[in-house]
Amino acid sequence: MQEVSADAPNRRMKDPECIAFLQWALPRLQLRWPGYRKVRRQVCKRVDRRMRALGLGSVEAYRARLDANPEEWAVLDDLTRITVSRFFRERDVFTYLCETVLPELHALAAPQPIRVWSAGCGGGEEAYTLAIAAHQQRIPVRILGTDWDERQLVRAHEARYSTGSLKELPAQWRASAFEQQGEELLLLRELRANVELLRQDIRRNMPAGPFHLILCRYLAFTYFDGPLQRKVAEGLLSRTVRNGFVALGKHESWPVDVSGLVETQPGLRVYGDRRPDRG
Ligand SMILES: C[S@@+](CC[C@H](N)C(=O)[O-])C[C@H]1O[C@@H](n2cnc3c(N)ncnc32)[C@H](O)[C@@H]1O
Predict the structure, then answer these.
(1) Distance 278 CA to ligand 1 centre (A)
(2) What is the pLDDT of residues 102-112, one digit of tens each?
(3) Are 18 and 124 in a shared domain?
(4) With a threshold of 0.85, does the pTM exceed it?
């Protein structure tokens, strides 16, 4: 059994210790270290806090705890979630989605609304960006946002944001879509009406679909390992309508061995369905 050091609550895990720990632990959760390299401090802080809450004085003691208590892996899994997001994140991608993809999908879906799924929707930033864009163009949409983190979904329901998370949104959109509430901005109720939110772990469940547009940005294709990325990609593909689109983050890419989608604008990582007619 590991000893609990007397000064356990005061000792902080050093960066190299945390890196070694994450390189050991992440693959066991089907996650990949390179995705976490730049954002590791967020996770290291949480792991450090967890170790201290358990009264463990070293990372070795925490590893032993994980070995002895398999249920601790679920706790660690929760600690690995990265929640950074903002409206209109990656301006060129959203300009393309709003100005080209939405009108194209409108032509495909009309008179029905375009069905959109924001997978890993965080605090709703991505889903609401599209809701605002569609509203401005009078394009009917139904947007589903899913996330596994309950706190993110609470934020999404509240739809209240700091100015920082709106900094990439065109100023005129900001002025017309939000009302100032103290230091924060509240998204107008009518823009929330077409967005539904659901708690779901994309590794285990996905909504039935199908969808005209799926956004799966900075979730599976940054943090998940290869086999899990492929599983998610196959799930997304099977939920995309013919001639629909899947958007990833600009720093991500679609697994090469899952065929059927083709990047429609070089470098934007927006992929169009180009599967042969399925009859
Ligand atoms: C880095 S944020 C990206 C948010 C948004 N897609 C964007 O690009 O701005 C990743 C989001 O995925 C969520 N997430 C992480 N693991 C998940 C899982 N297994 N299933 C569903 N959502 C998950 C996190 O809670 C977080 O809100």
Answers:
(1) 31
(2) 999 999 999 99
(3) no
(4) yes
